[in-house]
């Protein structure tokens, strides 16, 4: 499988060149069973950085335009990436994510929906919360410092798993998706502040 091959080829150079430094709940990166990894999104390299920092093989969503050519379709599918339409609610991609989690696999998603062009994070879309609620899978928040790419030192802060079921105990079911999205965003902002405080 191309994913496994690239992981072997890229892991050593990235560790040598970018010397990853992981803070916070490192053990969460090794969680077994169905798990949702969420991260902020600044560059095309974010999925690679997330993948090399965890022993789990992570399945990602990516915009369907990347799959429009035969080469692109083959390449990204070999990397465990599946297409999603960003212009509408893509039921097929949501079902694919739920199926992967039901099978005990790791799923990676960037809740902002697209790459941010600022130092901060854009408002989270509701798709991630929907998948977490429907699957019951824990959410592991991972903040990647944007400065990693300019300073050639990968810095990551990992938070504690977020459980939709626990949040559901304290809010109206009709508001759960909004509340969970807010919890995820606030948690990621907190990880950013923690990492900024450590890496001044």
Explain the overall architecture.
The chain is of the alpha/beta class. The protein is built from 8 helices and 7 strands; from the N terminus they run H-E-E-H-E-H-E-H-E-H-E-H-E-H-H. The protein has helices at 2-18, 46-52, 70-78, 91-102, 127-135, 148-151, 164-168, 176-198, and strands at 21-24, 35-39, 58-63, 81-84, 106-109, 139-144, 155-158. Strands 1-7-6-2-5-3-4 form a 7-stranded mixed beta sheet, sandwiched between helices. Helix 3 (70-78) links the parallel strand 3 and strand 4 (81-84). Helix 4 (91-102) packs parallel to helix 5. The chain is globular, with a radius of gyration of 16 Å. The chain starts with a helix and ends with a helix. The model has no long low-confidence stretch (mean pLDDT 85).
Our count of helices gives 8
Uncertain runs = none
Oligomer: single chain
Helix content: 40-55%
Helices and strands, in order, run as HEEHEHEHEHEHEHH
Shape designation: globular
* Cα-to-Cα separation, first versus last residue: 40 Å
How large a portion of the residues is in β-strands, by DSSP E? Answer: 15-25%
Strand line-up of the largest beta sheet: 1-7-6-2-5-3-4
